[in-house]
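Issue: copy button drops trailing tokens. Both records pasted manually instead:
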Amino acid sequence: MKITAIETIPVSLPVGKFEDGDHKVRGINAPARYPVGKNVTRPWDQDDKGNFLLSNVIVKIHTDEGITGIGEAACDTTEPVEVVRAMIDRHMAPRLVGQDPMDWQYLIDQVSWDADRGATRFSTSGIDLALHDLVAKALGVPVYTLLGGCRRTKVLASIEVPRNTPEKMAAHSYEYYQQGIRGIKAKIGSDPVQDAECIRAIREKLGDGISIRADANRGYTVKEAIVFCNLVEQYHVNLEILEQPVGTMDLEGTRQIKEATSIPVEVDESAFSLSQVHQIVKQDVADVINTKCAKAGGIRGVVLWAAVAEAADLPIVIGTEWGAGLKVAAKLHLGAAIKNADPVVEFTEMMIHELLLKEPIKLHEGYIDVPTGPGLGMELDDEKIEAFRTPGMDK
């Protein structure tokens, strides 16, 4: 079997809003005590209706035996859609066309490297997903078989709720609860006292049977993070994880917070490459490591990160990342196969915009079943792809 062509299709997906009109991904900070000057946050792309847009590049790897592997690459303001598509079309495709896809791990190595942060991470993830899908289809097995087998047949879905007031965050969490969600990750990192009240409000609204976690997105100082943890512990709300309380490179500060609280501390932005994961483990910085196909370079990257974490007896969380549908499938296979994967997997993408899948994702008491068909086990809808093709980017 030989790879004959690699096709890339950019798509843009409008993000929805809650029933009260608030955006599902853009949070509102607590009021600042003093003027803060110009906003340095990078602007989001928006459509003519004012909806935020999330971009992805669909990747199709065609072969001479008629088997096509399909994946997708996320995009953001650092690696925009134009860059991701160009990296695949101009750099990666020429190296892969004519190769045997069954050499898939070698081929992934040919188009990637363990850079701190570069224009290949997202692009590689798209190639990686498509190769996993292709090889598993060729063998007639689910992707989780390539990863060692199925340890779990379902995973609990967790959804992110953006920063806001305690009342708003509780209401937004309850809106997801009514749609069948039983796991909430609250976005915080604004004001530690108000943030602790937000967690308490969500717990009081949803009850004790719900998974509640929090992500500070590097928003705290060490002292602020400890204030938040102390308050949350006093409230007895059973916060399962505090994610990325301080800055990306502040590993010592993260370790201090970890030692000051009983709440498990997770790193996300600090874990941005395989070598950095090794440093986090080596320095005993965190209790949990957040992994994503996009930042790890695909399914294979997540598996490698998980192995390093497992060597230190640490769990990983398979985190939220923007996707058109196949990222959901990839995370289900990872959640099914990885020994030290947390049983709660983040699927925010499935609740904030339409997925381009032929069949909708179904929740069963908060859980999603792992697909068992060949490859990733989910199919994209070509009509939906065309409907959401990014304007101004020719075929």
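Record 2 (pasted manually too):
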Amino acid sequence: MNYELIKLLRQHINISQFVGFFAANLVGMLIVLTSIQFYKDVVPVFTEDDGLISNTYLILSKRITAVSSLLGEASSFSQEEIDDIASQRFTKRVGRFTASQYKVYASLGVGSLGFGTDMFFESVPSDFVDTDPAHWHYDSSGHEVPIVLPRSYLAIYNFGFAQSQSLPRLTEGVVGMIPLDIRLRGNGREERLRGKVIGFSSRLNTILVPEDFMTWSNAQLAPGADTAPTRLIVEVTNPTDDAIARFIDDRGYEMENDQLEAGRLTYFLKIVTGVVLAVGLLISILSFYILMLSVYLLLQKNTTKLENLLLIGYSPARVSLPYQLLTISVNFLVLVIAIGLLLWIRSQYMNLLWSMFPQIEEASIVPAILCGLAIFVVVSIFNIIAIRRRVNLIWQHKE
């Protein structure tokens, strides 16, 4: 019976209509899959998380001008200014940077060689640092201080200091295994501790230590010192909110590491991706409409023969099956070819991305494939239901 219906299909199929549907559906599917995958591959360039400070955190400081520098005006934030920031609609919470009020000297040994330098410490509330709490704390009865260094410091050492002094270059993993000898001086006292680098940050241009260590060390070595914050860490609901830029400009603040620009670029990328997705989905919907018109026309041409088959005992389900298999086969072929083209297109633009951003990691292609499968399933279900309803109408009309 199915063979007979296939023969009927061959007699009346309009090849140009099905080719038009296939091409349109392939273009629509490819646009949807490519836009999803491109967004997932590119967005880490703007929102790369270093595992320590989330991209929803902004670091604010006051703008230092020549006049304020000559007059010695304070660059710290007052409590009123902190409350003003905390009251903004885009703000979730505000944390303070607390700076060390004593002298810090650290030395690092590399084999038989070593070097040391004066430095400083800062801390933020522990819940702003996305790291294991078991590693991010200080026990005053112990002598090891966990430290987070700016990733730029390691680059300066490797490509500047180490090269000029004939010292070995270091990786992040190696630095984490080398103990730091730390000497703290203040209030007529000296403390000697051991430091351990537990991570590097691309967002923080400071040497970060746990807040409990900072509280203890300032109390011991600089009691009564002014600890008013000169920088704030602000968690925001949406870093791309235009109100943030207006607020910062109005108050004369500055934001570190071009975080606002990265947020704006991410927001723009989302808009472009959404527009492209909408165009792709629109093309897919129109191609689906073309397919249904082709199938309906095919059914209309075969109405008399289908009526005869229904009258001699074939069920509407069996009569519908060949048409349903035809549409499912075409949809599946479109999906397979679209995924193949996606893999090729992705290989081309990823080579370009890696040449510009060697550190970028390759995103998973699974979400794009799942989206393609979802479109295939939804469209196929609609095809199956529409064809079955059309055959049922022919059967009911004959009855």
